[in-house]
Design the sequence.
């Protein structure tokens, strides 16, 4: 491995799923030198995760479809690697951490794939404790990955890769489910890994927190890399701005001073005296209380108390942000608001009525819940059937018109006959969003 300058080489890479109208990857050429911190961005469905799977060797060996081109890892063709060998060289954190958990306890998940014969029992325990501490989850060794929050699962997925100490680390949206404090911690870990000479590939929409680490940024659109170069030149290029949005902090600076092109938070802070934001009068019309929590507790079957003595009123017309650290109970609160969960103590009132006494069908017509992981709610064979299910169940006057309107709203008309399980993670989120955009 040491004699090759490039950690990853991709040549003329093409991949198309069966029955697809266009390729997911369309003639990609990419070289990533050893020790580089490379950021890949682009719109949902552009092929970013598929490219990551190809680099890991999954596409050529496990996926059906048309595949051509070549991928080399430290000079060796990816097809020549055994699965156990490649996993020692490349570690990947998937966008959906649930998809890589197979163990009943977090300890076993972290130890999975390690050559246990190389370590004593004490050394293994110390390694598990060290990497759990690194991601801020001390004491979680004997908990189940299924029992923790989405953000905590993402941390476990990251720890389970770092413990193997691979030469190349690929992370698909590693910060997307984390609270700001956890994001900062993971970015610090990435910075340390870069200093150690690891080759790091980050796939991300929100690039604000990692641009200062990036050596290069690539923009992938419709299976092709349309822009690649240093961060400053890429994120202000026409190709980037056509398909992606600047992070808000950078956009504020640019709107105040078009000549200023910051790429780091530090540069934003130094320029923030130039920001001028005119106050905007809120157009919201606040009405009556429609959702109320009265002294609500919720304890899960395993004895974990997620919420304690919560009191909250939400009025019609309000926009409410529920914020908090990973594992603080935000998703539990949302599930209680929707009536999927019932409080262990206290009451949840929806339009003045106790949620325990309300019919699920009625609840679904009043409160729509979009899960953090969109795959948790998919079950139909096409996007159109997935979206029309709700309007039909609610006996809307014209379910088909409501469905087409929702698909148009989220720009998914061309995907309505696609299998929702074959969509990208971002497209699956849009699919779930449009389900509730026309059901009330």
Sequence:
């Amino acid at each position: 491995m040491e004699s090759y300058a490039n950690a990853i080489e991709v040549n003329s890479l093409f991949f198309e799923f069966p029955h697809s109208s266009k390729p997911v990857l369309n003639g990609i050429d990419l070289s990533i030198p050893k020790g580089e911190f490379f950021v890949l961005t682009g719109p949902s469905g552009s092929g970013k995760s598929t490219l990551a799977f190809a680099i890991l060797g999954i596409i050529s060996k496990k996926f059906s479809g048309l595949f051509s081109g070549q991928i080399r890892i430290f000079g060796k063709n990816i097809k020549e690697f055994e699965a156990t060998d490649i996993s020692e060289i490349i570690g990947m954190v998937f966008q959906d951490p649930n998809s890589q958990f197979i163990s009943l306890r977090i300890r076993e998940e972290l130890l999975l794939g390690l050559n246990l014969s190389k370590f004593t029992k004490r050394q293994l325990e110390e390694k598990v404790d060290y990497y759990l501490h690194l991601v801020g989850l001390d004491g979680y060794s004997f908990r189940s990955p299924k029992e923790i929050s989405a953000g905590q699962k993402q941390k476990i997925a990251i720890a389970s890769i770092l413990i193997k100490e691979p030469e190349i680390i690929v992370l698909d949206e590693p910060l997307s489910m984390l609270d700001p404090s956890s994001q900062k911690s993971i970015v610090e870990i990435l910075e340390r890994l870069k200093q150690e000479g690891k080759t790091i590939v980050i796939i991300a929409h929100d690039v604000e927190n990692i641009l200062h680490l990036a050596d290069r940024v690539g923009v992938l659109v419709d299976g092709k890399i349309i822009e690649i170069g240093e961060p400053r030149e890429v994120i202000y290029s026409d190709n980037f701005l056509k398909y992606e949005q600047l992070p808000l902090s950078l956009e504020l600076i640019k709107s105040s001073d078009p000549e200023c092109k910051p790429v780091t938070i530090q540069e934003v802070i130094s320029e923030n005296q130039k920001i001028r934001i005119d106050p905007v009068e809120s157009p919201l019309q606040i009405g009556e209380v429609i959702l109320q929590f009265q002294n609500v507790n919720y304890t899960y079957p395993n004895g974990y108390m997620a919420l304690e003595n919560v009191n909250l009123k939400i009025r019609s017309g309000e926009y409410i942000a529920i914020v908090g650290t990973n594992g603080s109970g935000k998703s539990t609160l949302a599930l209680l608001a929707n009536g999927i969960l019932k409080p262990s103590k206290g009451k949840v009132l929806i339009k003045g009525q106790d949620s325990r006494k309300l019919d699920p069908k009625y609840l679904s017509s009043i409160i729509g819940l979009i899960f953090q992981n969109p795959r948790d709610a998919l079950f139909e064979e096409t996007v159109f059937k997935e979206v029309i299910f709700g309007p039909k169940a609610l006996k809307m006057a014209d379910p088909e018109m409501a469905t087409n309107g929702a698909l148009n709203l989220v720009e998914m008309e061309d995907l309505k006959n696609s299998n929702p399980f074959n969509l990208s993670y971002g497209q699956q989120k849009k699919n779930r969003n449009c389900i509730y955009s026309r059901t009330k």
About this structure: The chain has a mean pLDDT of 85. The CA atoms of residues 339 and 355 lie 6 Å apart. The longest helix spans residues 180-195.
